[in-house]
Every structure is written in structure tokens, then in C-alpha cells.
Amino acid sequence: MPRFNHLAEWLHWQETLHPRAIDLGLDRVAAIADRLGLRQPRALTVTVAGTNGKGSSIAMLESILLQAGYRVCSYTSPHLLRYNERIRLGGTEVSNAALCHAFAAIDKHRGQDTLTYFEFGTLAALLVIQSEAPDIMLLEVGLGGRLDAVNIIDPDIALLTAIGIDHAYWLGNDRETIGREKAGIMRRNIPAISSDSKPLHSVRDSARTAGAVWYGLNEQFHYEINADDWCWTGPQSHYASLPFPALPGAHQFHNAAGVLMVLEAFRERLPVDTDAVVKGLQGTGLPGRCQFVPGNPETVLDVAHNPQSARCLAKTLRNRAVPGTTHMVLGMLEDKDIGQFTEHLAPVADYWCLAGLETARGLTSAALRSQLSHAIDPHRIACFPNVAAAMRYANQACDAGDRVVICGSFHTVAEAMGGVV
Questions:
Q1: For residue 69, is it left (φ>0), alpha (ψ between -120 and 50) or beta?
Q2: Do 104 and 92 contact (CB within 8 A), yes or no?
Q3: Strands annotated E in 350-401
Q4: Sign, Cα dihedral of 88, 92, 93, 95
Q5: Tens digit of pLDDT per residue, the chain (421 long)?
Q6: What contacts 320, CB < 8 A, 6 or more positions away?
Q7: How far apart are CA 21 and CA 42, in angstroms?
Q8: Residue 337 to residues 29, 214, 340, 368, 371: CA-CA distances in angstroms?
Q9: Domains, the chain, ordered by start
Q10: What residues form DSSP beta bridges with 221?
Q11: Residues 152, 187, 150, CA angle at the centre, nearest 5°?
Q12: CA distance 272 to 220
């Protein structure tokens, strides 16, 4: 008899099962995975770690591989609106019933061991994906890499995206230290691909220590942007006249370049033709990643929440300038580098509408304002109890040619999407 019958009940219970929300380490989750027979998947496995660009890279890979006709399953986190978004089977979100069935099986096999919310979800994803017998599965690391639950699986390919400073409490205060943690997904004799425009010494050194086969952007593979298209060159492949990635932002070329290196790395096991690459790049969609919503005013949704992603967002906004003013709706969590984040966005923001987030670690608008007022004219800042109120004010304050940008957290964008998309 399962403990619960409804997905919401399972998820609520999982939030309280383990004494700590985040408890990095592999022993508990690996032991349960062994009991469930999940540690040696038959599918080709790509594990993706990094600070920014993980979700975008998996979305592109999934889109291209589906166009090529392969059975693809993916696991990503966090979600925006529905937990089901985390597990995609052939491009379709997993059903409530499949999740509940997987949760019940994990609960049965865990014995007295407790699991965090993320660990429970990771095991469920592996169990559901195993039942689908896919050709390839794409796994996104949740936090770090070396001690993240996803790392109980030995991947066939390790992809590391751009690395910045985030989750410093758990991972370290500098990029090199963080990079070393994220490089923990590398294994001996497998391709270790870095799509970071400036690969870190710690990541490259970790690949050497692990015995992985290193492929770095601007080293073993390159790309060049032309006026209307772009081209990519790897050790054994070349793509000319590719369409720009559908996901906006110059940083998406880095992500796409890493994706194409992944395709080359497994070309003998899962060959992909150029037509699938073109259609896959054109057809990639990922809500909340620099998502432009037409209207008056134009609305931009972006889950950017660390300095590196703020810098990318600012660059994109500069490249798509509007004739009017920009109203920034901002809600953030307390463990983020708010000073650096807003410093990158200040040059492209005219007014700030600060929103309180009613979630774990969420800041009130007053607490957020206290970290901005020294660097931003207080007359350009307004505070609101939640995202909805901040959005209403921003939209009412807009004139023709203005725009509203909503960012700072997955929670901020999730709250906004109900009234925008």
C-alpha cells in the first residue's frame, strides 16, 4: 500500500523527510539506487554540470536528438510551474501517476534511510527513465557535481557549461574551487567537454587527474558568428551556415557549441545528420530563459540569479534596446550575491520594482532594498510584498516603448508567468 496517492502529498512529505534541505554526499542515495538497480543504465548518458547554461544545453540536445529520431529522456531542475517539468520522456513531461509509482518504489526500498527532496526526485527520475528504455538520457546536476545525487551515475559524456560563483556556502568562494567541485562528474576515458568561453585551470586539471578526454571551447572546438549564420568546427566535424540558436543571448552560442561537441563525441553510437541539427537549434524552447513576451509593454522573463547570468542578461538587453525606459521587477533569495547581481543590471535598468518572495530563503522587498540603496538612487526604487503587486505597478508605470524585465530567481519568474505567458 503506497504511503500517498497524490503527487502533492508525496512532494510535501519529501520536503520534511530529511533533517537538512541540502545534504551533499552520495552514500545514502547510492545505496538505495543499488537496491533499485539504477546504477548501470543501458542508455548512453550525458551528465551536465555548471553554474549557468545547463538547462539551455540540455534543451538543445534534446531538441536535436528528437529531430534525429532517437528516444530521449531528460532530468532537469528546478522547475518553474509544475514538478513534472523535471522529467521529460520523448519531449513530454512525466505524468503524475508515473511519479507517484516511482516515489512509492523508492519509499519501499529506502528502509530507514532518509533522503532530501532532490535526492528523492533524482532517484525517481532514474527509475522512470529506466522504464522507458531510451537511447540516451540527459542528466542535469542540481548543485555542484562531485557530491550531487546525479553523480551516482557514471556518464558516457561529461559536459561542463559556464562556471561562475553561486552556492558559495556549499561549493566555495572562487571560480577555481567551484570548478573543481563541478568537474567531479568526469570519469576515466570519457569525453569531458567544456563550453565555458574561458575554461578554468581547475576544470582542465581535474580532467587530467580523472583520465578523461578533454575538449575545450576555443581549444579542440571553435565557432564563428557571421552576419546571418554561424559555423562550428570540431576535431572531425564541421557545420557551416547554421541558424542562430532559438534561445536568445550571445551566451547561447557557447552552449550550442558545447552541444555540437557532444554530438561529435557520440557520433559512432548515435549519428545525427545536419538537418536534425538545424531543425533542433531552430526548435529549441525553454520558458523563463531570457524569454521575450511581445506586448505593450514588452516583457522579458529571465531566471538569472547570479552575477554571471546577470551579465548575460544585461548584454542581451543592451543588444535589444527599447526607445523607452526599463522597469526591473526583482525578487531574490537571501543566499545570492545581490550586490554583484544588481551591479551588472544597473546600467540597463531605469526603475526597480522590488518584490518579496514568500518561499524558503526568500527576501522581503525591504531586505532586498537595504542591499541596493547604497548603489542605486532610492528615488528609482519601489517595494512591494510580492511579484504580482510589483508587476502591476511596473505595467501601470510604463509608457509606449517601455519594457518590464522580471528576474532574480526561478521563484520570481514562476510567480510572474501565471499573469504573463
A1: left
A2: no
A3: 351-355, 381-384
A4: negative
A5: 889 999 999 999 999 998 888 888 899 999 999 999 999 999 999 999 999 999 999 999 999 999 999 999 999 999 999 999 999 999 999 999 999 999 999 999 999 999 999 999 999 999 999 999 999 999 999 989 999 999 999 999 999 999 987 666 667 778 899 999 999 999 999 999 999 988 899 999 999 999 999 999 999 999 999 999 999 999 999 999 999 999 998 899 999 999 999 999 999 999 999 999 999 999 999 999 999 998 889 999 999 999 999 999 999 999 999 999 999 999 999 989 999 999 999 999 999 999 999 988 899 999 999 988 677 888 999 999 999 999 999 999 999 999 999 999 999 999 999 865 4
A6: 248, 292
A7: 31
A8: 30, 31, 6, 11, 10
A9: 7-283 (3.40.1190.10), 291-420 (3.90.190.20)
A10: 217
A11: 25
A12: 20
Q: Give CA–CA dist 328/406, Å, rounded.
A: 6
> 391, 354 in Cβ contact below 8 A?
no
Q: Which residues pair with 199 in a beta bridge?
A: none
Tell me the helix, strand and coil percentages in the chain, rounded to 5. Answer: 40, 20, 40
Q: What is the C-alpha separation between 165 and 210, in angstroms, rounded?
A: 23
Nearest to 65 by CA among 279, 215, 217: 279
Helix pair 117-132, 96-109: axis angle to 10 deg: 110
Contacts of 356 by beta carbon, 8 Å cutoff, 6+ apart: 331, 362, 363, 364, 365, 366, 368, 383, 384, 385, 386
Cα dihedral sign for 408, 413, 415, 421?
A: positive
DSSP 70: -
Question: Where are any strands of DSSP class E within 110-212?
Answer: 136-140, 157-160, 191-194
**Which H helix or E strand runs over 46?**
strand 44-49
Pairwise CA distance, residues 315 & 317, whole Å:
5
Our CA dihedral for 74, 313, 164, 118, rounded to 10 degrees, sits at: -40
Cα distance between the two ends of the chain: 40
Contact 30, 106 (CB under 8 A): no
- Pull the grid cell for residue 128: 522512470
Distance CA 349, CA 381 (A): 11
Q: Check the CA dihedral 33-37-38-40 and report its sign.
A: positive
Residues 412, 117: Cα–Cα separation, whole Å: 21
